[in-house]
Design goal:
By secondary structure, this protein is of the alpha/beta class. It has helices at 135-148, 172-186, 206-211, 232-247, 277-290, 307-311, 317-336, 347-351, 357-364, 397-406, 435-440, 458-473, 479-482; strands at residues 4-5, 13-16, 25-28, 31-34, 44-46, 55-58, 61-66, 75-76, 81-82, 108-113, 119-120, 124-129, 159-161, 191-198, 221-225, 253-256, 261-266, 294-297, 373-377, 387-391, 411-416, 428-432, 447-448. The termini are far apart.
């Protein structure tokens, strides 16, 4: 393995592929660089002298500017680099579209066809509470139902409660967000059956919830208001049995990859995120789009500083306008709450070698590959168009992953340079940016993109990754599913009564 990598020929920084010691001599473009100080794995160092206020170039784009003169061989990080970004900007539509590098194949996965034409990659029984007050009741219902079925609920692969803390004492957008996300979950194709469980006095009233749900399979979606029955556990278990009877014949069958809807997400990053795992997701996204499938990129604050690259790929001027609105609306959200728009990355990201938001964003947006952007979704909106979509949601891992699931994605691909055990309520595949993390946290990580640093060809890793994605879509459990780590988090923006 090489000592360092230079991502783009125009970059003026290199990234250490391992810990490099002060005094080490490195060769670059026929020149010798002597390191002025120790440079940690994933961190940046100057390839040449950089003047004060001169841009630091990584990925071929500025990631900030030097706050002081930096000599060749110096460590480049938060102490000597500052973001170029501030506030809202004006944008102009200058399309730069490219041909998809992948061809359509005849590959399939084994999933579940639903009555409405949708396809699921899991067949699960869900209880969706309209309010957090009934989370405990829902747990009891699942336990008793499973026991009365003799522990065998096949063809349901598992039964779970989509727990959350909301549904009461909420106003305005928060109330609507809660209702919409839960309604989208009720109709998610990974659910073979759903019991919507209410209390009876909450803001998120079950009658209104049902009347605004739209079309749904009445044999597989049932409703219960706990305050209206004597024994809510007994009644709930009876309804779960009715749902089970409707689902008894469910089975997996061959479904083309065009029916896959995949969310693209990254968590705590390191200096390799934009080199290994995120570009791998980008290649996978382009491949899925070439099959007629759908991918979704979210985390709007982690587009700041790289948004123009996405805007250039808008399939139409109307889509461009929607991207601009999404970006500026999210910036305004920060401003309305008197928070800096361009906050530095988290402590974990900084420790991993990420210095500025541009540094993070330019790595993050690589998950979207090179495909045209077909549509832009507001938070809580369902997918309407195949191809690459953008979704408005924050960077928070739980909230953003839940938003991807609620938009209709059957699985989420989640890259990480730091590691995390979580999963949302759809399969959430953890992809490590480096091999050390994979080796340390095999009970968290599902796929190792760190091989890309070890001279394994990109095409070989991509082929292995595609095969893994198809296996998961066909029923292979991910680590968070094995550990029963499943979360639903809803975006909160306002007051609580």
């Amino acid at each position: 393995m090489k000592d360092f990598i230079v991502i783009n020929p125009s970059d003026n920084v290199g990234i250490a592929l391992k810990g490099l010691e002060q005094g080490e001599e490195l060769q670059h473009q026929g020149h010798t660089i002597i390191l002025k100080e120790t440079v940690g794995k994933g961190h940046k160092f100057a390839l040449a002298d950089i003047k004060q206020r001169e841009n630091i170039i990584k990925y071929g784009y500025p990631i900030g500017h030097a706050v002081t003169a930096i000599s060749a061989g110096e460590w480049v990080h938060t102490h000597n680099i500052k973001t170029n970004l501030s506030g809202k900007l004006e944008y102009e539509y200058q399309p730069s579209l490219s041909e998809n590098p992948y061809k359509k194949t005849n590959l399939t996965f084994k999933g579940f066809k639903r009555k409405n034409g949708e396809s699921g990659i899991r067949n699960e029984l869900w209880i969706v509470p309209t309010v957090g007050c009934v989370n405990g009741i829902a747990d009891q219902m699942i336990q008793i139902f499973t026991a009365e079925m003799g522990g065998n609920i096949h063809p349901f692969e598992t039964a779970l409660v989509l727990k959350h803390n909301y549904g009461c004492s909420q106003l305005g957008d928060d109330h609507e967000n809660t209702k919409t996300i839960l309604q989208n979950a009720v109709k998610h194709p990974n659910a073979g059956g759903v019991l919507v469980l209410g209390l009876g006095c909450e803001n998120n009233d079950i009658e209104d919830f049902q009347s605004t749900l739209g079309e749904y399979d009445r044999t597989r979606v049932k409703f219960l208001r706990s305050q209206e029955v004597g024994d809510e556990i007994e009644t709930g278990v009876a309804l779960l049995k009715e749902i089970y009877d409707a689902a008894k014949e469910d089975h997996r069958e061959d479904i083309p990859l065009s029916e896959l809807k995949i969310g693209l997400k990254c968590g705590g990053s390191d200096g390799f995120s934009g080199i290994t795992a995120n570009p791998l997701l980008g290649r996978l996204s382009d491949f899925i789009v070439a099959q007629g499938g759908t991918t979704v990129l979210t985390e709007v604050p982690e587009m700041f500083g790289a948004e123009t690259i996405l805007m250039e790929r808008a399939a139409s001027e109307a889509t461009f306008d929607n991207i601009v609105q999404m970006i500026n609306d999210f910036k305004q959200y920060f401003l309305d709450h008197r928070q800096p728009v361009y906050e530095n990355p988290s402590p974990g990201n900084k420790a991993g070698g990420i210095s500025t938001l541009e540094d993070k964003s330019l790595g993050c947006t690589q998950k979207a590959g090179t495909s045209d952007i077909k549509d832009v979704l507001k938070y809580g909106e369902l997918l309407k168009q195949k191809g690459l979509n953008l979704l408005s949601a924050p960077g928070n891992d739980l909230v953003a992953s839940s938003a991807l699931a609620a938009s209709g994605c059957q699985m989420v691909l989640f890259t990480t340079g730091r590691g995390t055990p979580f999963g949302t309520f759809v399969p959430t595949m953890k992809i490590s940016t480096n091999t050390a993390l994979y080796e340390t946290k095999k009970h968290w990580i599902d796929f190792n993109a760190g091989e890309l640093l070890e001279d394994v060809p990109k095409d070989v890793v991509l082929e292995k990754f595609i095969s893994t994605v198809i296996d998961v879509a066909s029923g292979k459990l991910l680590n968070h599913e094995k550990n029963n780590f499943r979360e639903l988090a809803i975006f909160k923006t306002g007051v609580t009564l």
